[in-house]
Specification:
Elements (H helix, E strand, L loop, with lengths): L9 E3 L34 E3 L2 H23 L1 H15 L4 H28 L3 H20 L1 H4 L5 H7 L13 H18 L1 H20 L5 H22 L1 E3 L4 H10 L4 E5 L9 E6 L4 E8 H17 L12 H17 L6 E7 L4 E7 L4 E2 L10 H17 L11 E3 L5 E3 L11 H19 L1 H12 L1 H7 L10 H7 L5 H13 L14 H22 L1 H9 L6 H21 L7 H15 L6 H13 L4 H32 L11 H19 L2 H26 L2 H28 L6 H15 L10 H12 L4 H17 L1 H14 L4
Antiparallel strand pairs: 1-7, 2-3, 4-5, 5-6, 6-8, 7-8, 9-10, 10-11
Helix pairs in contact: 1-9, 2-19, 4-7, 4-9, 7-8, 7-9, 8-9, 13-15, 14-15, 15-16, 15-18, 16-18, 20-30, 21-22, 21-27, 22-23, 22-31, 23-24, 24-26, 24-27, 24-28, 27-28, 27-30, 28-29, 29-30
Length: about 850
């Protein structure tokens, strides 16, 4: 087997096995050989082709470019301040270190193009060299022409640093134009030199860009824009002029097979799989042949499709491999042979022949029969379905995942025998989820033909109810093949019906779907939280000396008061939980519980760990799970209600005392947009089956539990007072700690104004799913203080002191409390 570049030629002959490619019925008529006869030494003439990868690269680069421009336009001051923070951060480095870093980078930037030109000249790759030079020049000119617009994002301190001298040129080299040219060259020559060179070149470009950013001689947004423009220009050039590649004509393929000792008469099969070149015909003895062509365009399409699947779906297509033509053909042949030897009925693999690094042909004996999706449902017998699933079982035991196992790749002959084709996507060392996805895809595909009941019955008969039930969580669109996913849209209830049938046969109440979406709201918010944390770290580092001076001048006598208020907040949290349940909870142990839940919340987002611990504690005290969950929900409800009351109350208090000079009501347009969004969301929930099932039913169930628990404690005024009074006082302790932290740093802002600033920042930061809102709440509090004219270093110092005492100081106490509760078997 070759490496992923597929750079060697030759032929490899396989053993009988499963065929790759699409095996349609042999058409009537005699296949003919088009084109001239061939001399074994004669190579097919090159033609210019356009690749799907270039178009996809332009789309991705345009999306990234739009994002960068949007950030720059929406937050120009934030872009500049981040760059200034980087400058301040690296000002702490010794001057000699900066000189060596910048100078060494410039030497590398001069040497790299010379080495690359030498390699291309040695390989006599004149055309890629000329194309790369033209694309690099065009990209550099475009970026240079946009230089004035890009300079709008460059702070003066960065422009001043670019004027400094260096070993080779000014500190501004390599410039944004150079970065664009380097990206363009990498796009053009990467496919010519192979995967290893391509990876090395992209790493080099990334090092250039990152080094210019961290040495504060390039604005991050400008570096990203330059790289995107370089990719767009180079990909556009390649789409315009094309690339030289081996032709895929019928004559060329026949020529190639003859040169490897396989004389054949072939003709192209129209409608081949995803536009790949597929040919069929006969060999010299009149026996049927089937040839599947693998080339770079085919490889690029496959890689793009799998990469897109990996971006959308987690845990199934995580191992995306970019294989060359020969490596892809040999991989398909290997999977075919292994499947055949496992007892699966498949075509025989005759050979894999190659015509250089960009062309390989997989030659097979085709299977007789029609695709299962083209067979009348009445002609699909139970015996055929059982035979199919028994063959799938053999694949599963051998660890082979077909990865496109649907009715388009299952063949049924006139004798009722079933075969499996097209293993070009197969994994021979598949994991459990990939194997399960095969079963789920075939279940859905056969259900479309014979109905859910017959499809599930056949699978259970061959694989067993337990094995089929284990794959049911993947009966959802993201786990299925594109063809099944598209067809299933015409029957919206199909997948739910199949899941219900599987649950019935397995004797379980229902099927909980696996979470497959890789990018959702949680991941987006987590990324935003990470960005906020990075921004906070950079701000702290860049203002380290000012922060140190501010902390040195702080009133340390206020620290004991801060610690006392922190412990008081834990006690009040215990009082709130006592008021949320009709059961009698011991105050000491409940206070321990609040410390323990704070420890868990340091590692779980959205306070999930603490909520689960409180529910467990209540269950151990004799409450059922529903009541325990309702009690925990009541504490959250009380906290939310107090949050709203405090925002309104502190807002009115601060406004009456003249403490909110910059407060203004939102515009009517903003209000209208918010109302429209709320109405649309409500419409999705109330007027769609999906919304009613996933949202309303859960809300009703939780609401009934909350009302039942609330009605039980409503008869006790003490419980109501504990619930809402404890929540109010607990939140007030946080405002007091924030106020005392600001006073310790000499911040002269009124208490009501600090209260509304804290409540506003806390509300905004609560949307972040990071544990305890880390990063988000710090950034929001700093921004709030800076907004009332507090110096940045002082604001950072006050927020740092507040978070250390309120968030991090309870951690060791919470760890001890959790351990003690566990030893007492209370959680």
């Amino acid at each position: 087997m070759s490496d992923d570049d597929g750079t060697s030629g030759g032929a490899s002959v396989g053993a009988p096995g499963v065929a790759t490619g699409r095996e349609p019925n042999a058409p009537t008529g005699s296949p003919g050989r088009a084109g001239p006869g061939s001399d074994p030494a004669e190579a097919p003439a090159a033609v210019r082709t356009r690749h799907a990868a270039d178009a996809a690269r332009i789309v991705v680069a345009l999306a990234v470019l739009a994002l960068l421009l949007g950030v720059g336009i929406a937050f120009p001051e934030g872009s500049r301040s981040t760059t200034v923070d980087l400058v301040r951060l690296f000002d702490h480095l010794p001057r000699i270190v900066l000189q060596v870093l910048v100078g060494g980078l410039q030497i590398l930037a001069v040497a790299a193009p010379l080495v690359l030109v030498g390699v291309l000249v040695a390989r006599r790759s004149w055309e890629p060299l000329a194309t790369a030079a033209g694309a690099a020049t065009a990209a550099a000119v475009v970026v240079a022409a946009l230089g004035r617009a890009l300079d709008d994002y460059v702070p003066k301190v960065v422009l001043d640093r670019q004027e400094a001298g260096s070993w080779v040129a000014g500190a501004a080299f390599p410039s944004a134009a150079y970065l664009a040219g380097a990206a363009a060259v990498t796009v053009v020559v990467g496919s010519v030199l192979g995967a290893r060179w391509r990876r090395a070149l992209w790493w080099l470009v990334a090092v250039f860009a990152l080094s210019r950013v961290v040495t504060a001689t390039q604005v991050p947004i400008n570096a990203g824009i330059a790289l995107c423009l370089g990719v767009i220009v180079a990909s556009g050039v390649l789409l315009a002029v094309g690339r030289a590649s081996v032709p895929l004509s019928t004559a060329a393929v026949i020529d190639l097979l003859e040169r490897h000792g396989i004389p054949a008469r072939l003709r192209r099969v129209e409608g081949g799989h995803r536009r790949s070149e597929v040919l069929e015909g006969t060999d010299a003895a009149g026996e049927p042949l089937f040839a599947k062509v693998f080339d770079t365009d085919d490889r690029d399409r496959a890689f793009l499709l799998r990469s897109w699947q990996r971006l959308r779906v987690r845990g199934i297509d995580d191992r995306v491999r970019l294989r060359g033509a020969r490596a892809g053909a040999e991989r398909a042949a290997l999977a075919t042979v292994l499947a055949g030897r496992s007892g699966v009925r498949t075509p025989d693999v005759l050979a894999v022949v190659t015509g250089g690094p960009e062309l390989a042909v997989l030659v097979q004996r085709p299977l007789a029969g029609r695709r299962l999706c083209d067979v009348d449902p009445a002609g699909v017998t139970d015996a055929a379905l059982t035979d199919l699933w028994e063959q799938v079982g053999r694949l599963q035991r051998r660890g082979i995942a077909h990865r496109w196992l649907d009715a388009t790749h299952v063949l049924l002959d006139d004798d009722g025998r079933v075969g499996v084709s097209d293993f070009r996507w197969a994994e021979t060392d598949a994991d459990e989820r990939q194997l399960a996805a095969d079963v789920a895809t075939l279940l859905a595909s056969t259900a479309l033909i014979v109905g859910p009941a017959r499809a599930v019955d056949a699978a259970v008969m061959a694989l067993g109810a337990e094995a089929v039930a284990a794959t049911a969580p993947l009966l959802q669109p993201l786990a299925l093949s594109p063809t099944v996913r598209a067809t299933a849209k015409e029957q919206p209830t199909l997948l739910a019906d199949v899941r219900d049938e599987v649950a019935r046969r397995a004797g379980v109440e229902g099927v909980e779907l696996a979470r497959l979406a890789r990018v959702g709201s949680r991941e987006v918010f987590a990324l935003l939280g990470l960005v906020l944390v990075a921004y906070l770290v950079i701000s702290l580092a860049s203002n380290a000396s000012d922060i140190g001076q501010a902390i040195g001048d702080a009133e340390w006598g206020r620290i004991p008061l801060l610690v006392a208020i922190m412990f008081l907040g834990q006690f009040l949290g215990a009082v709130t939980l006592q008021g949320s349940t009709p059961a009698d909870l011991p105050l000491a142990r409940t206070t321990q519980l609040m410390l323990a839940q704070g420890f868990l919340n340091r590692f779980t987002p959205a306070n999930a760990g603490g909520m689960a611990l409180r529910a467990r504690f209540l269950q151990r005290r004799g409450e059922d799970l529903t009541s325990a969950a309702a009690s925990v929900g009541l504490t959250s409800l009380a906290s939310g209600a107090v949050q709203v009351v405090f925002i309104v109350g502190f807002g009115l208090w601060a406004g009456r005392s003249g403490g909110l000079p910059h407060l203004s009501m939102p515009s009517s347009t903003t209000v209208l947009v918010v109302v429209l969004v709320v109405l649309i969301a409500a419409g999705v929930v109330f007027f769609t089956a999906w919304g009613r099932r996933l949202v309303l039913e859960r809300v009703r169930e939780m609401g009934r539990s909350l009302l039942r628990t609330l009605s039980e404690i409503a008869h006790s005024p003490a419980r109501i007072t504990q619930l809402f009074g404890g929540a109010a006082l607990s939140k007030l302790t946080l405002i007091l700690m924030f106020s005392q932290s600001c006073r310790a740093l000499g911040i002269d802002v009124s208490f009501p104004q600090l209260g509304i600033l804290y409540m506003g920042a806390n509300t905004v930061a609560s949307a972040a799913p990071t544990p305890g809102g880390v990063g988000a709440i710090e950034a929001a509090l700093v921004a709030a203080l800076v907004g009332v004219d507090v110096p940045t270093a002082t604001a950072l110092s006050a927020v740092l002191l507040f978070r250390v005492v309120s968030y991090w100081l309870p951690v060791p106490f919470g760890w001890w409390a959790l351990g003690d509760l566990r030893r007492a078997d209370l959680v």
